[in-house]
């Protein structure tokens, strides 16, 4: 690896330069140069050391590459690896939060203290939610891991940084009695929202909102009372093939009560399709607009909250219908492994962790059952 050492006529000191190959991000040829050495021997010694470091894969160019510029390049790679909705969310955080605070710094200058200050500022100064802070931290952490692979940094400055713990959200569910009250009230209404079928699907299957909105008629087998989760609808109302994870692609057995509602809803959809004619966009969706288009999730949830308010029942989130479904099954002593598979969790530990609050209340029934089957000593 050749280099050159020259005396600077303006300063009277010695400078050196050598070729360090191509830049890992831009692919452009890069040259390493240092200036201001008192003697030629000192300049030569320093140059040889840097060249050896480079040959041993320990060389890091002290470039002017800013973290913001690096992130723009790195995000181009992420664009092809992340789901559209996820990439969109990450891009918003990059533009509005990460770049304004860290983007101006050279990537080699960023230390764990900088990252810790950044996290503290988000948590204490700006008051971001802890879940949001965790996501932002993961974005920065992943970017730094890649920068280390590119040999732009020697160590990852996110390592050892303390981030706020995520507080477990309190789950609010309806009792079995309240579920029945909700169904009875809804079905007595004259102008019941077309979204009601979706609410009932979630209550009686435990399906997620996106799964309910992405359900197709071809995914429902009325002869066996089975439905297949094969696609979802995103928060933007786009149809996404596949599910949240591998475990989410699953088969769910549904009760006769839901079958009745689905058949009634199917007749409604067919009438609307006939009335719309060529204006109808047929995506084969169970839950759709009168013209066949996917429902926007926020509008779907709004209909649920309106109906809940009219019913006088305790207000819960739409996602709590899924929690209500699981809780009722646990209280009915359904095997937790079966519940986990029904919900599409990755493993049974996820189910136990989420619904651990239900388990203690079941201990009394377990003891009562033991008293019935175990003969007491006389």
CATH first level of the largest domain: Mainly Alpha
- Radius of gyration using CA atoms only: 30 Å
Largest sheet: 3 strands, antiparallel
Task: Write down how many β-strands occur, each being a DSSP E stretch of 2 or more residues.
Answer: 8
Adjacency order of strands in the biggest sheet: 1-2-3
CATH topology of the largest domain: hpI Integrase, Chain A
What's the helical proportion of residues? 40-55%
Rounded to the nearest angstrom, the distance between the terminal CA atoms is 93 Å
- Low-confidence parts: none
What structural category characterises the helix and strand content?
mainly alpha
Series of secondary-structure elements, N-terminal to C-terminal:
EEEHHHHHHHHEEEEEHHHHHH
Average per-residue pLDDT, rounded, comes to: 88
**Backbone shape:** elongated
**Would you identify the CATH H-level superfamily of the largest domain?**
Intergrase catalytic core
Task: Give the domain tally.
Answer: 3
Strand content: 5-15%
Named at the architecture level, the CATH assignment of the largest domain is Orthogonal Bundle
Question: How would you characterize this protein structure?
Answer:
The chain folds into 3 domains: 3-55, no CATH class; 67-149, Tyrosine recombinase, N-terminal domain (DNA polymerase, domain 1), CATH 1.10.150.130; 176-364, Intergrase catalytic core (hpI Integrase, Chain A), CATH 1.10.443.10. It is built from 14 helices and 8 strands. It has helices spanning 40-55, 67-78, 84-102, 112-125, 130-149, 176-188, 196-205, 209-214, 256-276, 297-311, 319-331, 336-343, 348-354, 359-373, and strands spanning 3-7, 14-22, 29-37, 220-221, 226-228, 231-233, 239-241, 251-253. The strands form 3 sheets. It has a 3-stranded antiparallel sheet with strand order 1-2-3, with helices on one face. Helix 2 runs antiparallel to helix 3, helix 7 runs parallel beside helix 11 (319-331) and helix 12 (336-343) packs across helix 13. It is elongated.
